Amino acid sequence: MSRAILDLLGAEFGAAVTRDPTGLPRVAPRTSDETAAALGLAHRNGWRVRVEGRGTWMPTDAPADLVVTTIALDRLGAVTPADLVATVQAGTSFRTLAATLAGHRTWLALDPPGSPDRSLGSVLATATAGPARHRFGPVKDHVLGTTIATADGRLVRAGGTVVKNVAGFDLTKLQVGGFGGFGIITEANLRLRALPPVRRAAVAAGALDPLFHAARAIVDAEVDAIVVELLSPMVTGAPEWRLLVEIAGTEDGAATEMERARAAAGEIALTAATGGALGAAAGQSFLEGPISIRAGVLPASLPEVADLIVEELGPGRMSLGAGRGGLRWSGATSVDRIRRLRTILAHREIPVTLERAPWPIREAAGHFGELREGVAPLTARVRAVFDPTGVLVAPLEGTRG
Length: 401
Fold this sequence. Notes:
Blueprint: H1 2-13, E1 17-19, E2 25-27, H2 32-45, E3 49-52, E4 66-69, E5 76-80, E6 85-89, H3 94-103, E7 106-107, H4 120-126, H5 133-136, E8 143-149, E9 155-159, H6 171-175, E10 184-191, E11 193-194, E12 198-206, H7 208-220, E13 227-231, H8 233-236, E14 241-249, H9 251-265, E15 271-273, H10 275-285, E16 291-295, H11 302-313, E17 317-321, E18 327-331, H12 335-346, E19 352-356, H13 359-365, H14 375-386
Parallel strand pairs: 2-4, 3-4
Antiparallel strand pairs: 1-2, 5-6, 6-10, 7-11, 8-9, 8-10, 12-14, 12-15, 13-14, 13-17, 16-18, 16-19, 17-18
Helix pairs in contact: 7-9
């Protein structure tokens, strides 16, 4: 079958068609139109499609007939510093994007976990925000509009290129965090920020509880920080928990806010650090565990839920958002343990999302798990609009068992 797929694809896409390391036919579209055409061909021929970015985050192991990779969708369109908007193809790496935007004195205020070569599309599809979520919000807040190739070969453009474009049903928010279950994001219109003149960071070390209280005191004092994050020993390689505080702005403004943070922290000593380097190393540490999950935990419950997750899943790397809440864990565990944790936390109305895992875990547990009663039929109907024949391999719900 793979030979026949290669022949059909080759006639339309030429040199963009290769084989992946396992021998599967792989196509690397260069435009949104080509992406839609590849999916339309798969739809008409009944092929199952695995979507890949740059291969740095999600394991490339889902069974399929065809791989569609966004790696050739790597061009930056218009960057408009005056409007703080950029149009970027989904295969563009964060490293390239950051360097280009810096040349325009702008930045995309996202610091997702993983490699700096991770693709924009991967971050949008999985909605994996990093510690800067404290100041700048979740991934969806940075996306003004998207272009989506549906699994039956259509192109859908949602949203716009201005911050206030919110008319009608927001399809962009459906796609961001949809794990590729509703189509392939090929291009995004991004909301930028002015690049701050300076960034300052400080860290404190100690046990989780006193650091947590210091972090909450900083938040309650309304210090204008971009990051107030708690990092477990396995994240930093240090023997104790770390509290990371980052502040951006003018030289005088950053210095003033850092002094306010130190005053709010009280007896917890914040010492100067290289925040960008520590944050990047912390983000990449989440690749060291085969499984990553995130939990929508309110700030007040973070230490308690962190202990519960360690008890249920075992030791792992953890980061806790002291301002907006939220917890990320990475390590090795089983499907049964993930299901049990979901059940326990569901009673507390805390959602658990499987961000990253080998295929057998993703297939069995699902990215969102067994959805609440009444939600699964709605999700199925929405997926049917974008993927009527089940072309895209994207297990939002797990298998029962």
